[in-house]
Design a protein that fits this description.
- This protein has 452 residues and is α+β, with helices and mostly antiparallel strands.
- Helices cover 40% and strands 8% of the residues.
- The strands form two sheets. An eight-stranded mixed beta sheet has the order 1-10-9-6-7-8-4-5. It has a two-stranded antiparallel sheet with strand order 2-3.
- Helix 11 links the parallel strand 6 (262-267) and strand 7 (293-298).
- The longest helix is centred in the C-terminal third of the chain and has 22 residues, at 388-409.
Length: 452
């Protein structure tokens, strides 16, 4: 028997029987010290002791999972400034853009007449709309003024969006005004600040704050994020086979790679920031669906009622336990679809989150896969790194890249000839919700091809 054939069969049996979501992700054997249990972490002294021991057993440079666990034990409030939170990874830097336009890497502005592409693409990269592209337009760090202002607006938006569906209605505006005005006909700046910025320390609202044991449990369960770090920019995108909701259609990533880039959107119903920003992703989908393939991948819940429970979710009608069967996850996804009404294809990950783990997609993340099947853009970890506008800018630059590649390989052609899809990593990721009879047809073809 071909060794690769045997290995792939073992892999599929492993996933079909419900492997733990972090099973292949913990290369550094991340675990609490042997003498400390999760329940003991409610005592700050034991939490500090565990953090000190882990700092010794996980010397620098630490894995993302180790950094997150140590930060939690030290009292992190998960505000995006510590642990595994950080910036996106992208191929599309300022130097990349200058090089693609044949310009001196020392210049600090790219004018319209220097841009080798459509004006529409130019305008989408020119974030501030001043008619030129500069390094500031490509800066999505948390200290960038535009990013800071956008983050503030997002927080304000979520306070007013009482339904939690990412869209403000006239009724929600009026309800907010009435509550903030307290019976008056107008609002002062003082009133508005009081309504949007509650008094007290800048922490979680009442009923939403987690304890250290809850966060540690959520970390090892993959609810606050996967311990897996996912593929880096430039690496092959792990292949997968997932079922599209609302029918029997199955999507194989390697079969849709080719003439168009692919956008992967990871998320779940109980992640509030994801819900509020998902309509932004839908807008991007509607703008670019003819030039890229979009797929949303539904993963495990971030805030189930039997995990890091949030009262704010319950007030919005978002309340469910962590699914324990694939059917329950499909039902949770249906609740998400009813509330947010996505129009892009939605795929449900296996119960053990093989795809979410392979891409480190929990609780929310964005990817752009280029036409060669490699990761071109990988957002920061959600919720703080989930920046749809940043992803769109990277996607637009992937169009430029694909167009130049087409012209270089076949300057006379008007259409792109689909390329043979490359193999994506050593083993395809096969979720445990794919039925053997149908999915194995494609697998057998793949195995015969690889064994030649």
């Amino acid at each position: 028997m071909n060794l690769r054939y045997f290995f792939v069969l073992i892999w599929n049996v492993f996933w079909l029987n419900g492997a733990p979501s972090q099973a292949f992700a913990q290369g550094d054997s991340l675990a609490l010290p042997k003498d400390i249990t999760i329940e003991m972490l409610a005592d700050p002294k034991w939490a500090a002791s565990a953090a000190n021991q882990l700092e010794n057993t996980h010397p620098l440079p630490r894995s993302e999972g180790a950094r997150m666990l140590i930060a939690i034990l030290k009292g992190s409030q998960l505000n995006g400034s510590d642990g595994w939170f950080g910036p996106a990874q992208s191929r599309y830097s300022w130097n990349w853009l200058l090089n693609k336009n044949g310009l001196d890497p020392k210049i600090q502005t790219l004018e319209r007449n220097q841009f080798q592409g459509s004006l529409d693409l130019f305008d989408q990269i020119d974030r501030d709309g001043d008619g030129r592209i500069s390094p500031t337009d490509l800066d999505w760090s948390d200290k960038n003024p535009f990013v800071m202002q956008s983050g503030l607006i997002n927080r304000v938006f979520r306070r007013i969006d009482s339904s939690g569906n990412g869209r403000l209605t006239r009724e929600e505006w009026e309800m907010f005004f009435q509550n903030a005005a307290k019976g008056n006909d107008s609002l002062s700046a003082y009133d508005l600040r009081g309504a949007l910025i509650p008094r007290g320390p800048m922490v979680f609202p009442s009923g939403d704050a987690p304890t250290v044991p809850v966060l540690v449990k959520g970390l090892f369960a993959g609810e606050i994020g996967s311990i897996s770090e996912g593929p880096k920019v430039g690496a092959p995108a792990p292949d997968f086979v997932l079922k599209k909701t609302g029918g029997d259609h199955w999507v194989t990533l390697s079969k849709v790679i080719g003439p168009k880039p692919v956008v992967l959107v990871f998320g779940n119903f109980t992640c509030g920031p994801f819900r509020s920003l998902y309509p932004d992703v839908e807008s991007i989908y509607n703008r670019h669906k003819n030039n890229a393939n979009f797929f949303m991948i539904y993963v495990r819940e971030a805030h189930p009622t039997d995990g890091w429970r949030m009262d704010s979710n319950g007030k919005m009608g978002v309340s469910l336990k962590q699914p324990t069967t694939l059917g329950e996850r499909v039902e949770a996804c249906a609740m998400f679809q009813k509330k947010l009404n996505p129009s892009m294809p939605v795929l449900v990950d296996g119960l053990s989150d093989p795809v979410g783990t392979a891409y480190s997609g929990m609780p929310a993340r964005l990817y752009v896969i280029d036409t060669e099947g490699k990761v071109a853009y990988k957002s920061g970890r959600g919720p703080f790194g989930f920046k749809p506008m940043e992803m769109e800018q990277a996607l637009v630059m992937s169009f430029i890249e694909a167009e130049k590649a087409k012209n270089a390989s076949n300057p006379q052609a008007e259409t792109i000839t689909p390329k043979t899809n490359p193999s994506f990593g050593p083993i395809p990721v096969k979720p445990n919700n794919a039925p053997f009879p149908e999915s194995q047809k494609g697998l057998r073809k793949w195995l015969r091809w690889k064994s030649k």
